[in-house]
UniProtKB/TrEMBL annotation, chain A:
Name under which the protein is recorded: DUF742 domain-containing protein
Alphabetical list of Pfam families matching this protein: DUF742
Superkingdom per UniProt: Bacteria
From TrEMBL, chain B:
Family per similarity comment: Belongs to the GPN-loop GTPase family.
Keywords associated with the record: GTP-binding, Hydrolase, Nucleotide-binding
Name of this chain's protein: Signal recognition particle receptor subunit beta, a GTPase
InterPro entries: Gliding_Motility_GTPase (IPR052705), Gpn (IPR004130), P-loop_NTPase (IPR027417)
A GO molecular function held by the record: hydrolase activity
Organism: Marinactinospora thermotolerans DSM 45154
Organism ancestry: Bacteria, Bacillati, Actinomycetota, Actinomycetes, Streptosporangiales
Length: 125, 197
């Protein structure tokens, strides 16, 4: 098989090995804090973490989030689907272990200053 | 701040805000190539689980009976400054995964529609998608070697692109060329914002 991506995504062999609700204890998307794919998350520095109370994946997330990361980056780096990462993160946020910042949205139009900063940032590359 | 070994960012709990630009276009138009040419990190890929029967429905009970599929999204990152990070998302090429574009599109600064001159028609749906949602976009014609070179105005006519939408020729493999495309987009967004007020 030269290219795995050619597999029909709808075929059974392309399905996940672990159902998402196993990792999230059956909790569903609707329980989650509103997190976007580009919400930026960071481990709260002062939090005393009781690792025994956490899923191994959550410990890995905390470790990764010592630097600010987007939800999408956490998902990609730990190879956990975005929807599952959101549930694990919202639990960590609920425990006060992780802080999150929502992205810019259409409800808050981008200011001229931000656009100029983006333009400058692109041109500096 | 400068001390080694400690992590300054988490120490102060300063959380940057994020903003995103979408890179759309047909399958094989060069989306991931463009993301990679400007990203400061090697492009990452994330998988989103999709339950086809549960679109728009929060309740996932009974999910066992439905077909689950995964959709890969490639993305890159550009740190703008301490407080702002730009993410570039390559959108899924296959038409059947478009339902996830709404989350992707929500709050995006704008989009680049990559046109492949060998298959110009494959970017029609992307153009249509952004036009309907009034998301500012530019069309970037990826000049593949050996492919016929179009004049941007020929592309405009072929795709019925509005005269206000910029069309640029590019080489998605080139950082300079991709930077120019992104700059064109941001300037276009600024004009759109100014015109909309």
């Amino acid at each position: 098989m030269p290219d795995r991506h050619e597999t029909d995504p709808g075929s059974p062999e392309a399905g996940p090995l672990v159902r998402p609700y196993v990792m999230t204890w059956g909790r569903q998307r609707s329980d989650a804090v509103q997190l976007d794919m580009i919400s930026v998350v960071i481990a709260a520095r002062r939090a005393e973490v009781d690792e025994m109370a956490l899923e191994p994946e959550q410990v890995a997330i905390l470790d990764l989030c010592r630097r600010p990361q987007s939800v999408a980056e956490v998902s990609a780096r730990l190879d956990i689907p975005v929807a599952v990462v959101k549930v694990l993160l919202s639990d960590l946020i609920g425990r006060g272990y992780v802080l999150a910042r929502a992205p810019y949205t259409t409800e808050s139009p981008v200011s001229r200053d931000v656009l100029q900063a983006v333009l400058d940032g692109i041109q500096r590359l | 701040m400068a001390s080694k070994g400690s992590d300054p960012s988490s120490g102060e709990n300063v959380i940057p805000s994020a903003i995103k630009i979408l890179i759309a276009g047909g399958f094989g138009a060069g989306k991931t190539t463009m993301v990679g040419s400007v990203s400061e990190i090697a492009p990452l890929s994330t998988e989103e689980l999709m339950t086809e029967a549960s679109l728009g429905v929060d309740d996932l009970s009974g999910v066992e009976e439905k077909s689950t599929t995964t959709v890969a999204l490639d993305f890159g990152r550009i740190t703008i400054n301490d407080g702002l990070v730009l993410y570039l998302f390559g959108t899924p090429g296959q038409q059947r995964f478009w339902f996830m574009w709404d989350e992707l599109a929500l709050g995006s600064l704008g989009a680049v529609v990559l046109a492949d001159t060998r298959r110009l028609e494959t970017c029609f749906p992307s153009v249509d998608f952004f036009e309907r949602r009034a998301i500012p976009f530019v069309v970037a014609v990826n000049c593949f070697e050996g492919a016929h070179r179009y004049d941007p105005e020929e592309v405009r006519e072929a795709l019925s692109i509005s005269p206000h939408t910029p069309i640029v020729l590019c080489d998605a493999r080139s950082r300079e060329s991709s930077k120019e495309v992104l700059s064109t987009l941001v300037n276009h967004v600024a004009e759109t914002v100014a015109a909309g007020v």
